[in-house]
Amino acid sequence: MTTSTSTSARTSTSTGNRGETVHPASPAIDTESVTALLERGRRLATPVLRAAVDRLASPMDTVAAYHFGWIDAAGRPSDGDGGKAVRPALALLSAQAAGQPPEVGVPGAVAVELVHNFSLLHDDLMDGDEQRRHRDTVWKVHGPAQAILVGDALFALANEILLELGTVEAGRATRRLTVATRKLIDGQAQDISYEHRERVTVQECLEMEGNKTGALLACAVSIGAVLGGADDRTADTLERYGYHLGLAFQAVDDLLGIWGDPEATGKQTWSDLRQRKKSLPVVAALAADNPAAERLAGILAADAKKSEDEIADFTEEEFASRAALIEEAGGREWTSQEARRQHATAIAALDEVDMPAPVRAQLVALADFVVVRER
Asked: What segment(s) does the record annotate as region Disordered (predicted)?
């Protein structure tokens, strides 16, 4: 796969100063509609999610509650940031796409959210991330063992929530969720292995991100429809929308992982560069045919021979210089354009599903939100 680094179609991304907007496109967002969809997802899913977490043995229930932002590290009630809730919102819309009320999608919304948070708990530990949602991560507060155990427990709960419905549709939904989870784990394994490789192709990176992010978003936007009795063709088409939406989502995440404002993202400055991640901007920059790409390749090859402690001792200026080379080589612009391409492909899939026009409009609004977010 070749990578274009032309600057003729420069998007709304900034020139590289931290804290400026990094999103790749500026569709007219119906902010009020999106906020209402996300809030509805939280309102309907959170009570069921809390009840599921209450099933866990102590101290896993407390650790999970901390992770979800319901309590602080001392166990006091908290209004911590529980995340964007895009997946629950998609699951409820999925049920409506099949002609059912949004409540039909609630078990699917909760199951997907449990799997998503299982992956976050494990990813934070594997990546050594100390901050998530502006708070210390679970492994940092409660230790690695609890992060592993609670993550495993959330995955088990996800399947339990679906299977206890006892319907044929629940069995179909569980199959889709387990396949998506396996792909998510595949993606995390690929992501880790790529950190130790000098070169990764753009296609390999897209495959990894399709597994790690696209698979679960694809499941989220089909699972409500399946629970509502939709046929496999409808569910598969909705999954296609979710898969490409996931790739757009991850492309924006990759931009934020290098150029995002820590005040908005809740992560360290240059977080993906600190972890030596082969994210899309890095891979696309290395694939370019220009002097900046050659200089970047030499620097990253030397970095690969350094220990984690040596990387941790880098100054802000050293990370900033690497980010600047990625941008000069074209990696930032290419990733912005890729987010736009994946967004357009996702929207096109919706035309193949017979659904109420307001539901389609809401799915479009959520897709637009994904590509302009700043956290």
From this structure: 1-27
